[in-house]
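Question thread 4412

I'm putting together a teaching handout and wanted feedback from people who do this every day. The idea is simple: show students a protein as raw sequence, then show them the C-alpha cells that encode its fold, then repeat with a second protein so they can compare. Below is the first pair exactly as I plan to print it.
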Amino acid sequence: QVQLVEAGGGLVQAGGSLRLSCAASGRTLNIARMGWHRQAPGKEREFVATISWSGGRAYYADSVKGRFPISRDNAENTVSLQMNRLRPEDTAIYYCNQDGLGGHYWGQGTQVTVSS
C-alpha cells in the first residue's frame, strides 16, 4: 500500500558528503515516523536515524550522531538524510523506512560507498 523510493546514493571519498532522500507514495495516512537503516555486507541491518512526523523529533545512532542530520517535509511525505564527513565504515545499503498505525514499510535501498 505504501511505496518508498530512495535516491541520492553514490560513491564518495572519505570526508565527503551525500544527501539521501526518500519519497513516500500510496497509502501514507497515519505516519508516525520515517527514518533510515543501513546494512553492510556480512552485517546486521542497523538503525541510523529517525524523525517523528508530527513533532520532528530526531534520534540518531551513536555512530552517526553529529554527522548525519535527518529532516522531513510533511507536505511532500519525504525524509532526507544529510551525510557529512563520511567514513569508509559508512559504506552500506541505506534503507528508508516508514512506521505508522498501518504498519512498517521499507524502501528498496540505495548504495552508499565511501572510499578511503
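The second pair follows. I'd like the answer to focus on this one:
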Amino acid sequence: QVHLVESGGGLVQAGGSLRLSCAASGRTISSYDMAWFRQVPGKERDFVAAISWSGWSTYADSVKGRFTISRDNAKNTVYLQMNSLKPEDTAVYYCAATVGSGYVSPTTSDEYAYWGQGTQVTVSS
C-alpha cells in the first residue's frame, strides 16, 4: 500500500505561482509512476502531469510550459510547480501513484491505484 498526502494548495492571484507536494509513505516510490490530476465540482477528474519511474514527464496541453512535475525519490515526494496560474486552474488537485511498467506514465485516472485526499487550489482573477 502507498499512502499519499498532498499539501501546498491555497488561494493565489492570476499570474502567481504555487508548489504542490505529494508525500508518500508505506512504500518507496522509486519504482512508481506518479501523477497529478485535478477536478472541479460536477466534472470528471482530469489529467495534469505525470512522471514515470524513469523520470520521463508528460503534461496536459493546458498546462504545458506553465507547470513542472518533479520527483525526489530520496524524500519519497513528488512536486508540481505551477506558474502563471489562471482562474481556470482552480480545482482540487490529487496526487496518484501506480507501479511503473513502461517508459511513459499513463494519463488516465483508472490506471492509477493509489490516490491522495486532494488539496484545493483557487486562482482569483
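Top answer:
Good format. For the second protein you could add a caption like this: The mean pLDDT is 96. The longest strand covers residues 91-99.
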